[in-house]
């Protein structure tokens, strides 16, 4: 395998996939496969031609739809708005988003049984189930709960009672979009930049196991 072969794969992907960032994520899988083959087949000295392969496509216009993360000031303003104006369940969802760095649909799709408050290290299990399918196999993980996120989880579990889903209004197909629209109204009231969205509000380190 030559560098040109790896480049040909990347170029073929760029013709079919909208953004270079997405291509690079797909190439991460290819990099891992090639690295695994080098190890398992004892190909010492063989170079992984997909390593450090630049897939930026300068011929394309910048993606004007790209979402941006919250700045610390925007987070403070939005949090104040949400905790002052939003419904209680939406407040809890926001607090969990901030404290875990999870995707919005991962929070809205939680079952009560996914919240492990009595574990040695309190956490949430992000798992596939009928009400919410996780994005990829890699997305299945355990996410620690600390600080305000832990308190929000306790409050949500208590409020859920005997219900299956942690957030009844949003724990169904399309619930993540519904929650995004609801939170989006509060975000727009606090943040003028429309590229900043509720699904990019996590401030916690994504420490998972």
What do you see in this structure?
The C terminus is likely disordered. About 45% of the residues lie in helices and about 5% in strands. By secondary structure, it is mainly alpha-helical. The radius of gyration is 20 Å and the shape is globular. The chain has a three-stranded antiparallel sheet with strand order 1-2-3, with helices on one face.
Brief overview:
The protein has 209 residues and is mostly helical.
- How are strands sequenced across the largest beta sheet? 1-2-3
Mean of residue pLDDT? 85
CATH topology of the largest domain: hpI Integrase, Chain A
SSE class? mainly alpha
Q: Which bin fits the share of residues in helices?
A: 40-55%
CATH architecture of the largest domain: Orthogonal Bundle
Main β-sheet: number of strands, strand sense, barrel status? 3 strands, antiparallel
Under CATH at level 1, the class of the largest domain stands as Mainly Alpha
Strand content is: under 5%
Taking pLDDT < 50 over at least 5 consecutive residues as the criterion, the unreliable ranges are 58-62, 203-209
Specify Rg, calculated over alpha carbons: 20 Å
CATH level 4 superfamily of the largest domain = Intergrase catalytic core
Per the principal axes of the C-alpha atoms, what is the gross shape?
A: globular
Distance between the termini: 35 Å
Oligomer: single chain
Question: What order do the SSEs take from the amino end to the carboxyl end, as H and E?
Answer: HHHHHEEEHH
Labels describing this entry:
disordered C terminus; hpI Integrase, Chain A; single chain; mainly alpha; 7 helices; about 210 residues; three-stranded antiparallel β-sheet
């Amino acid at each position: 395998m030559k560098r040109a072969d790896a480049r040909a794969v990347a170029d073929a992907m760029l013709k079919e996939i909208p953004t270079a960032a997405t291509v690079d994520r797909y190439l991460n899988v290819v990099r891992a496969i090639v690295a695994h083959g080098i190890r398992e087949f004892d190909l010492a000295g063989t170079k992984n031609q997909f390593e450090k392969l630049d897939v930026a496509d300068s011929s394309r216009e910048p993606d004007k739809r790209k979402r941006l993360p919250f700045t610390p000031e925007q987070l403070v303003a939005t949090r104040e708005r949400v905790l002052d104006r939003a419904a209680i369940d939406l407040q809890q969802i926001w607090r969990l988003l901030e404290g875990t760095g999870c995707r919005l649909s991962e929070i809205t799709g939680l079952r009560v049984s996914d919240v492990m408050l009595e574990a040695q290290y309190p956490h949430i299990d992000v798992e596939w189930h009928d009400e919410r399918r996780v994005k990829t196999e890699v997305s299945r993980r355990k996410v620690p709960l600390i600080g305000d996120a832990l308190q929000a989880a306790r409050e949500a579990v208590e409020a859920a009672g005997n219900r299956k889903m942690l957030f009844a209004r949003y724990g169904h197909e399309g619930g993540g979009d519904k929650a995004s629209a609801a939170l989006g109204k509060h975000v727009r009231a606090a943040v003028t930049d429309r590229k900043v969205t509720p699904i990019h509000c996590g401030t916690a380190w994504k420490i998972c196991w």
